[in-house]
Amino acid sequence: MSIITNIEDLRVLAQKRVPRMFYDYADSGSWTESTYRANSSDFANMKFRQRVAVDMSNRTLKTTMAGQDVHMPVAIAPTGLTGMQHADGEILAAKAAEKFGIPFTLSTMSICSIEDIAAHTSKPFWFQLYVMKDRAFIERLIERAKVAGCSALVLTLDLQILGQRHKDLKNGLSAPPKLTLANIANMMTKPRWCMGMLGTKRRGFGNIVGHASDVSDMSSLSSWTSQQFDPVLSWKDVEWIKKCWGGKLIIKGIMDAEDAKLAVASGADALIVSNHGGRQLDGALSSIAALPSIVEAVGDQIEVHMDGGIRSGQDVIKALALGAKGTYIGRSFLYGLGAMGEEGVTKCLEIIERELDLTMAFCGLTDVKKVDKKILIPGTY
């Protein structure tokens, strides 16, 4: 195996090792994928001011996100079906994040359950919540997150309805995969993945099966999810969830300044500028393009985070320069997980940390909390 030096190396390896339907699930957007591509390409247009002859010693990336101390301003984003990229994927990613000193966020649509993560980690993690029509199930999910000691609830607001993702439809995405001839032929070329899956009992949606009404096995799950995502979700529901939860609340999916103001009014502790990785509204702005107007609209009233398109430490520092107080990585850590399991997630975090640290130094700074627009060339952002 060649030496891995960047996130792209992990992506290439993951593509070789993960069955096509699950690799495609992670590495795709909706419709034409224009927003998915813009999330990354818009970062590339931004240029740095390089500074010289400044003291670059004693650098620190330590800061806080939503009041929690972090080793660097990066969290693991909530991603569905993570345990299909690699056996027990959410557990492995959570362990890597804990050792690294950054937050791990577990998705409602995870393969490993809330209880699985709590049993395999020693520090609090974050839980991401989708709002379903079955409010009693939502109350139970929130209570389970409390019992597990989760230190923040990440409420996703941009998946009331599902964007059309062509690759998932063509691949017949399911967890576990349907044993069609095409799927069997593809999985036969992924022996490491298959051996891992044979060695675990976690192959379904662990937070849902056996917990939601009328969902005792996988055969009833797909019909349940298609009926359960709630198109009438409103800010009143946010108030109800905040009251049920009672702890730190982070709102995910904000792409408009007016919605950012409503997030402030809701009493949330932080918001995430996010277009769901380009997987919902194709043709929307990239997250990094939407970030400045949202920061301007809400100022210091709420902590602003962002996700979407981050493939390097340089992308992280560009987001910080435009006002984000924290960032989230989804695909980047999934590539690492699919490539090499827990070791791959750790490698991903090490790559981002090194790139962030070196870029900060080249821009003449030693404390990540002091990063601002001055590190960028005017007119390039």
Number of strands: 10
Strand and helix order? HHHEEEHEHEHEHHHHHEHEHEHEH
Describe the largest sheet: 8 strands, parallel
Say what the CATH topology is. Answer: TIM Barrel
Active site: 276
Cofactor: FMN
Protein name: L-lactate dehydrogenase (Cytochrome)
Keywords: Flavoprotein, FMN, Oxidoreductase
Question: What structural keywords apply?
Answer:
single chain, 381 residues, two-stranded antiparallel sheet, 15 helices, 10 strands, 10% strand
Structure overview:
With about 375 residues, this protein is an alpha/beta fold. The chain is built from 15 helices and 10 strands. The protein has one domain (about 5-375): TIM Barrel (Alpha-Beta Barrel). About 45% of the residues lie in helices and about 10% in strands. The strands form 2 sheets. It has an 8-stranded parallel β-sheet with strand order 3-10-9-8-7-6-5-4. The chain has a two-stranded antiparallel sheet with strand order 1-2. Strand 1 and strand 2 form a beta hairpin. It starts with 6 loop residues before the first helix and ends in a 19-residue tail after the last helix. The mean pLDDT is about 95.
List the topology elements.
Layout (H helix, E strand, L loop, with lengths): L6 H11 L2 H7 L7 H11 L18 E3 L2 E3 L3 E3 L12 H12 L4 E2 L7 H7 L5 E4 L5 H13 L4 E5 L9 H6 L9 H7 L3 H8 L22 H8 L6 H11 L3 E6 L2 H9 L4 E4 L13 H12 L4 E5 L5 H9 L4 E4 L1 H32 L19
Parallel strand pairs: 3-10, 4-5, 5-6, 6-7, 7-8, 8-9, 9-10
Antiparallel strand pairs: 1-2
GO cellular component, one term: plasma membrane
Protein name: L-lactate dehydrogenase (Cytochrome)
InterPro entries: Aldolase_TIM (IPR013785), Alpha-hydoxy_acid_DH_FMN (IPR012133), FMN-dep_DH (IPR000262), FMN_HAD (IPR037396), FMN_hydac_DH_AS (IPR008259)
